[in-house]
Design goal:
By secondary structure, the chain is mainly β. The chain is 6% helix and 27% strand. The chain has 1 helix and 5 strands, in the order αβββββ. The strands form 2 sheets. It has a 3-stranded antiparallel β-sheet with strand order 1-4-5, with no helix packed on it. It has a two-stranded antiparallel ribbon with strand order 2-3. The longest helix is centred in the N-terminal third of the chain and has 4 residues. 7% of the residues are buried.
């Protein structure tokens, strides 16, 4: 996804990123953020900790995993 979305500054995908917002955290297999929502440091690097929800979270279940409903 980054091959197209990142080069055109549409979105950025990150694998296994811990996203904490409020007092909850999720760690989806892939987190997708719209380009304009990507948090950066003053030097322009992507931050190490995201405290916002991803625009799209992708979880890939292996055959051994069960779907949890909340």
């Amino acid at each position: 996804m980054n091959g197209i979305a990142r080069s055109q500054k549409i979105a950025y995908t990150l694998p296994k990123l811990r996203c904490t917002f409020g007092d909850a955290s999720i760690v989806p297999d892939v987190s997708v953020f719209r380009w304009d929502r990507i948090l950066k440091t003053l030097s322009g690097r992507i931050v190490n900790r995201f405290e916002i929800h991803p625009d799209w979270a992708i979880e890939i279940l292996s055959p051994e995993q069960r779907l949890k409903k909340y």
